[in-house]
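Title: Comparing notes on inverse folding

I've been comparing how different people in this forum approach sequence design from structure. To keep things fair, I'm posting one structure and asking everyone to reply with a full sequence. Here's the target:
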């Protein structure tokens, strides 16, 4: 009979799978998705990319 697994400390959070979260709940919690690159005021003013 195999011996039971012994852990001296709880497992790390990053190693456990994340539970399902509805997209609307995620948006309420964290807000809308932000772009990685936000243009400066002058780029928005002159339409430069």
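Reply #1:
Here's my take.
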């Amino acid at each position: 009979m195999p011996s039971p697994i012994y852990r001296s400390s709880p497992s790390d959070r990053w190693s456990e799978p994340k539970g399902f979260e509805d997209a609307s709940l995620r948006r309420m919690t964290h807000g809308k998705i932000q772009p990685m690159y936000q243009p400066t005021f002058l780029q928005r003013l002159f339409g430069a990319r």
